[in-house]
Design goal:
With about 325 residues, the protein is mainly beta. The chain is about 0% helix and about 65% strand. A hairpin with a 5-residue loop joins β19 and β20. It is globular.
């Protein structure tokens, strides 16, 4: 383990916020809501090594004023319209902001963090219509739009790295960077139904399903085709199907989740073009059995069908990576006192 493996990041955040609630009525329709304002300031200090001898301390400070507002319009006893608008931020992980360089002298690649990486910023708008047609049952439709600033994207560049390139030549370096503005918009449909109308123990069964469509655009340009790129990490289509059984003693759940292919890494033409993760589904299951009032047995099964994950460069025909995550089953005992 050399100096370049050392990552030392300190991040201090201070925040203040206030909120007001309100309720009124128009023509028999009850409207409730709230509005708030949050101020946060973050100081980040990062220390590491770019090479075996080159130390690289760094400081960065970020300040944000974040307003938000929410409204619920109770159209009927079982039909509610919700509207929301907010400015939000999400800080990058500590690993993404470290200054250390991690080399691979076999593949001539490497990765390092970006101590100047700004938080992910977005101004978002949501509208949701919820229909509660039966106990513990609902149908929901939502539309959303997010105006994204300084989103994080992983880029790969070919560089001369002091302390390594003198011996090994140029390295393809992966590093998170802040992209320019982009937009995310789409819709979501969700269905949940507790099958209480069924006879006997079957009335404890239930189903859930949801589907999300996302369309995104950014100023990023494909280095090979010249086309505009979507926001990295976002699938265009994703859905989840869930079946469950719940009573006082047992809780069983099986879920199949799928997401379509998505852009994972923005790369130059010299590196083979952009990297995409292939579309993939996964079947998981869980169970909880109450042994006593205070003791329960839990079982979690992940990737029951051993689905394959993979990546390709630019087109699906140029497969670059394939991995098979094995089936994993976890047993546990939880006690409440």
């Amino acid at each position: 383990m050399g100096p370049t493996s050392v990552k030392d990041v300190t991040q201090d955040t201070l925040g203040f916020y206030g909120k007001v609630n309100g309720e009124t009525e128009f023509g028999g329709v009850v409207v409730t809501g709230n509005a708030g304002l949050r101020y946060i300031t973050t100081l980040r200090e990062s220390t590491g090594y770019l090479s075996a001898t080159q130390r690289n301390p760094s400081k960065a400070e970020f300040n944000y004023l974040l307003p938000s507002a929410n409204m619920a319009v109770n159209l009927t006893n079982d039909l509610t319209l919700r509207l929301a608008a907010a400015k939000v931020v999400a800080r990058p992980s500590l690993g993404e902001v470290s200054t250390s360089f991690v080399p691979n002298t076999v593949a001539f690649t490497g990765s390092r963090g970006n101590p100047s990486l700004r938080p992910f910023e977005a101004t978002q708008y949501d509208a949701t219509l919820e229909w509660y047609f039966a106990p513990a049952s609902s149908i929901t439709g939502a539309i959303f739009r997010k105006n994204v600033n300084s989103f994080t994207v992983v880029t790969v560049t070919r560089e001369f790295v002091p302390g390594f390139s003198e011996r090994f030549g140029l390295f393809d370096i992966s590093q998170p960077t802040n992209g320019a503005n982009g937009t995310i918009q789409g819709f979501e449909l969700a269905y949940q139904h507790a099958l209480r109308f069924l006879p006997g123990i079957l009335r404890n069964l239930g189903v859930q399903a949801n589907y999300t469509f996302v369309d995104s655009s950014t100023p990023l340009v494909d280095s090979i085709t010249g086309a505009r790129l979507p926001l990295p990490g976002l699938s265009r289509d994703s859905y989840t199907l869930i079946g469950y059984y719940e009573d006082k003693g047992v809780s069983l759940r099986a879920a199949y989740t799928y997401r379509s292919a998505f852009l994972s890494t923005v790369q130059s033409a010299a590196s083979g073009g952009n990297a995409y993760s292939i579309g993939r589904g996964q079947l998981d299951a869980s169970a909880q059995i109450n042994l006593t009032r205070n003791l329960r047995l839990t079982v979690d099964a992940i990737n029951l069908t051993k689905e394959i994950a993979g990546q390709y460069l630019q087109t699906p025909e140029r497969l670059s990576l394939t991995t098979r995550e094995d089936r994993r089953i976890f047993f546990g005992i939880a006690a409440a006192f």
